[in-house]
Amino acid sequence: MSEPATNPAATSFPAPTISLPLGLEVLRTYSGALVCLEILFGGLVWILVASSNVPVPLLQGWVMFVSILTFITSSTYLALLISGLADRINTDWNFVDVVYHFMALLLYFAAFVLEAATTAASNIQLMPNTTANVLCMTYPTGNICTILDKRQYRVNVAATVFAFVVTLCYFCSMVMGIKRWRV
Questions:
Q1: 68-105, pLDDT tens digit by residue?
Q2: 89 partner at 20 to 30 Å CA-CA among 6, 12, 60, 95?
Q3: CA gap 181, 167 in Å, rounded
Q4: What are the Cα distances from residue 22, in Å, to 32, 102, 104, 133, 183?
Q5: Among candidates 142, 136, 163, which has minimal Cα distance to 70?
C-alpha cells in the first residue's frame, strides 16, 4: 500500500517575517538603539516615581504600572532579538513590533499626562523669612491639588521629562516599525 499524500500546507509553517537583524547586530540599528533608550529612560521613570514616595497613588500608581510593564516587555523583546529566538517563533515580527510600540505609546502618553498633572498640581509654597515652616496654598486651578515638598517636586519634574522622552522614543519606534511593516 502506498502512503497517503500529505498536504504540504499542513506540515510546514511560513517563515517568520522580521526585517531587523538578529543577535548583537540589532543594537547597531536605529530600532535597536531606540529600544535600549526605551528601557533606560523607562527604568529612570520607574526609579524617579518610586523615589518620590508616590505622594498621589491614584495618579502615580498608573505611571508605576506603565513604566514597570513596558520595562519588562521591552527587555523581553530585546532579549528575543539578541538571542535569535525571534527567528524560531513563527509570526510576523514586523506587525508585532508596530502593535507593541503603538500600545506602549498610548500607555506612556497617558502616564506622561498623569505625571505632568501630578507635578503641575503642586501649588504649595514655603514662606521664606519665617521662623516656622508655614505652607501657603493658592487656590487650585483644577480638580487636583497635591502637596509636594521641594525634593518631591524636583523628582516629579524629572520623572515628567523622562516620561516625555520615553513617549517620544516609543513614537519613533512605532514610525520606523510602520515603515518596516509596509515594505
A1: 999 999 999 999 989 988 888 888 888 889 999 999 99
A2: 6
A3: 21
A4: 10, 22, 22, 58, 18
A5: 163
